[in-house]
Amino acid sequence: MKKTVSIIGFPMDLGAGRRGVDMGPSALRIANLSEKLTELGIDVLDLGDITVKIMETQNQGDPNLKYLDEIVRTSLKLAHRVEEALDKNYFPLCIGGDHSMAIGTLSGIAAYCRKKEQRLGIIWVDAHADMNTHETTPSGNIHGMSLAAAIGMGHPDLVNFYVPGRKVDPVDVVIIGARSIDAGERENIKKAGVTVYTMQDVDKLGIHRITSRVLKQFKDKVDHIHVSFDVDSVDPSIAPGVGTPVPGGLSYRETHLFMETIAECGCMSSLEITEVNPILDNKNESAAFTVGVVASSLGMKIL
Ligand SMILES: [Mn+2]
After folding, report:
1. Would you give the DSSP letter of residue 232?
2. Cα of 1 to ligand 1 centre, how many Å?
3. Is residue 64 part of a domain?
């Protein structure tokens, strides 16, 4: 089945504590994202970037929900564009940008799933859990709240964003690669009942076993699988150019094997790539690595 991949750029860094991830979409394009996918026989339609106002012209607003207004304004456009892509039977590939973009991405997907009466499942690959709310956040950065918002926890403006209420049932959410979780997030994860495979689980069980288990579990009950890939899940020795590097991450092969297993399943319906930060990178190597990972997720094989 030939799919058209629709690339949607979201140059957002207002949700993050560190500047630079607004250049992520450019870095991925410069690393030949479209060309790599075209080589795989995929039709690629690059819709360009959604315009995001820069930090210098914005008021921070509530210190526990920094830049909420601009994040909401631009995420509405993102959600709309994602829903539109799915309506056209395109595969949305959203490239960021900090992880607050998931608020828009997941809302667009959720709106589509509601229309089609489809059940949504999310695989959240991340060093962090992004399970804070405005009440638990140590930083006020919204990129740490996007998954919590999706499962209905947090500020009403985020929880009821685009379509009312939670976007996904927490039993259909799996986090893989976590190794830096705040105390408040720990509570929220337990309360919500989200499944987390930490890096310790990856070390003990292996990434292939974990991925196969999750996909098997999803295949029986979920209709739309979305992968939200935060590049900081990868070890900083492989991908140093990310928003919030944390040691002890996924190896080069673990990352590819995860995506290759997804591709073998043939069951991913949308993908987003977040937190590529060219300011911290060496000659765009993290973006180049990430483009290879995207290619693996969409069918690039070793042999
Ligand atoms: Mn994240």
Report:
1. G
2. 31
3. yes
